[in-house]
From TrEMBL:
Organism the protein comes from: Burhinus bistriatus
A GO BP annotation: protein import into nucleus
GO MF annotations in UniProt: structural constituent of nuclear pore
InterPro entries linked: Nup188 (IPR044840)
Segments crossing the lipid bilayer: none
Superkingdom in the source lineage: Eukaryota
Cellular component aspect of the GO annotation: nuclear pore inner ring
Identification of the protein by name: NU188 protein
Length: 76
């Protein structure tokens, strides 16, 4: 009941957050492949993430870059 209440209270914000992400596109994939500033391993992983999650290729690479810069702490 509490979870349902919170979801109902914040549904608009949740919808906006989820709507931010776009579906994959060949245009986006080509931009990533042509981008010389993105390292080859990041491109490859970004394209795989895009396919796996059904997200835009550019957004997938951006998510990976943010994760690596902000959240990744290495293996322990």
């Amino acid at each position: 009941a509490q979870i349902a209440a919170e979801l109902n209270k914040h549904w608009q914000r949740l919808l906006e957050g989820l709507s931010y992400y776009k579906p994959p596109s060949t245009t986006s994939a080509e931009k990533i492949k042509a981008d010389k500033d993105v390292a080859a391993p990041l491109k490859e992983l970004g394209l795989r993430v895009s396919k796996f999650l059904g997200l835009d290729e550019e957004q997938s690479v951006q998510l990976l870059q943010c994760y690596l810069q902000e959240d990744y702490r290495g293996t322990r």
